Structures are given as C-alpha cells and as structure tokens.
Amino acid sequence: MIRPAVSDDVPSILRLIRELAEYERSLHEVKATEEQVHESLFGAEPRVFAHVAEHEGAVVGFAMWFLSYSTWEGVHGIYLEDLFVSPDVRGHGYGKALLLELARIADERGYARVEWAVLNWNTPAIGFYESLGARPQDQWTTYRLTGDALTKAARG
C-alpha cells in the first residue's frame, strides 16, 4: 500500500533515511532528528512531503519530495529527494509504486516533471529508473554549496 505519510510515520521514515545513508556509505553524515523530520513534514508551513510504502502493516519504503519550478515551462515539478525501500522487501514493486504515485501527482496537478539525482555507482537504481522511461540529464552537472563554503559565501 502506498499512502501519504502521517505524523506517526516519522520514526519509520528516519529509520529508512538511516538505512538509505548506510546503503550509500554515508551513515555518518545523517544529522536529521525525528523533531526536524516532523517539523519539515507536518509543521506550520510544510515545504517537503513524503509518501510511504507499507508491507504487512510496517513502513518499508518512502519517497521524500518537494516542489521545484521550471522557468521555461512556467509550472512546478516534483524533485524527489529520496526514494528508498528496505532491502528485505525489494522486488515487491514498492519502489515502482512510490515513483508512479509521484508521476500521478505531477500529471494530475499539471506539473512538468519529476526529477532526481542518483549516485553514478548505483547501477541497480539506474537500471530501475531507466526501465520506467527515465533518462539521465547528461548535459547538467549538479553543484552544491554546503558546510564551510556555504557559511563563507553567506558572509561575503
């Protein structure tokens, strides 16, 4: 079952975030707390959204996303920050169902796209995405300001 996340899902979502980070060899970088995830999803002005996959009553996957905007298209899109399904239930279609739910939302709302980033070494994910018709945007390189560089830039 795929459904929008509810407040009670926050501990499960944070557990899955940690599982994802471990899979991506970056568990040591996870700083998010339950309180932060709860505020982001369910606070006074939520700007991030989540859908979850349930298997036998337990949350086993999630898609965390937010709105993007295309100046060329003149409409919003969905940026998929994270998509993860616990390894022990992969192959049951939960990842596909989560991604297709975001596509359905985008189509229903008139959004131009659903987009995301994938690690270059994650060939199982790349194959999965391409099987759904997604294509890499090879003319673009993602840049990021973070940490000390962000602080330095912000302070001039």
UniProtKB/TrEMBL annotation:
One of its GO terms (molecular function) is acyltransferase activity. It comes from the Bacteria. This is GNAT family N-acetyltransferase. It is an enzyme of class 2 (transferase). Its EC number is 2.3.-.-. It holds the Pfam family Acetyltransf_1. PROSITE patterns: GNAT (PS51186). The lineage of its organism: Bacteria, Bacillati, Actinomycetota, Actinomycetes, Streptosporangiales. Residues 1-155 form the N-acetyltransferase domain. Keywords: Acyltransferase, Transferase. InterPro entries: AcTrfase_GNAT_prd, Acyl_CoA_acyltransferase, Diverse_Substrate_AcTransf, GNAT_dom.
